[in-house]
Amino acid sequence: MLESIATSARQYLSVVGTASIKYLTLAFLTYYVSVVLYGIRWKLVLKGVGRDAPLHELVKAILASIFMNNVTPMSRSGGELLRMAWVSKKANIPAGISAVSIIYERILETIPVFALFLTGMAYFSSEEPATLLILGMAGISLIWIKWDSFVSLSLRLFRTPVTHEEMKKITALKNMHSLNIIAILLSSTVWLLDVVRLKLITLAFGLNLAWTLIAVVSIANLLFGLIAFTPGGVGIIEGGLVGTLTYFGIPTALAVSITLLERFVSYVASSLVGLAVLLTSGGVEIWKALKSQ
């Protein structure tokens, strides 16, 4: 049994060793471009509620929060709290305002995520794409029409108390059309970069898969991350990604190797970078203060 496991491990590692450094480097680059775009989006939303913070502090907060998300259960349970405390400490932004900005980011993010989900459904569904498009537009329209109710529900789900004034600010964001369009475009770009990153990793192994297939696999990977309850989705995301790749005919050894590299970029390396930021930028003190409250 142990000999069989050791043989399989050697086989997978030998395949990983054949990966192109050029494509792997580009995959890393797309990941950190995404982080910067997240920082720009957060800065724009904060400006929308009348606050501002240096972009470099927002990026550092996001990097540190990635580490916390990767080591706490249910994905975002620790990272978002750290982001709130970080901007409160570094930019003197009240916790309620930072919470509102983060929740608003998540609300805007549902639009590209919903679009990706519909793309995945269209790939497998026998329904006409127009039907799925109508359903998607109806869902987005309902959120927009019932905006105040949706915001209130989101605040309850995040267990975030806000004052009446803070609530007025977040609901008023709906009318800032330029902000919303730019933020949605940034969110969409980030998710597209996730697809590009997966494409680059497959290219690192000389595997030139169709963009539509890469998109569907990326959507499946996103969904596994959303439902994962382990720290950083460990075990669930890896198993899901390997299973999805093999379902589409990728040999098991190659599917495991692709998954190992993808998780090295998005989990292992990101955790190490986030930990380094946490240790060198005063994040430990912020986290201790947060835990003591």
Automatic annotation (TrEMBL):
InterPro entries: L-PG_synthase/AglD
Main location: membrane
Any Gene Ontology CC annotation: plasma membrane
Top-level lineage group: Archaea
Bilayer topology: Multi-pass membrane protein
Keywords from the named record: Cell membrane, Membrane, Transmembrane, Transmembrane helix
Residues spanning the membrane: 20-40, 107-126, 132-158, 179-197, 209-229, 241-261, 267-287
Entry's localization field: Cell membrane
Pfam families: LPG_synthase_TM
Family: Belongs to the UPF0104 family.
Protein name: Flippase-like domain-containing protein
Species of the source: Thermococcus thioreducens
Organism classification: Archaea, Methanobacteriati, Methanobacteriota, Thermococci, Thermococcales
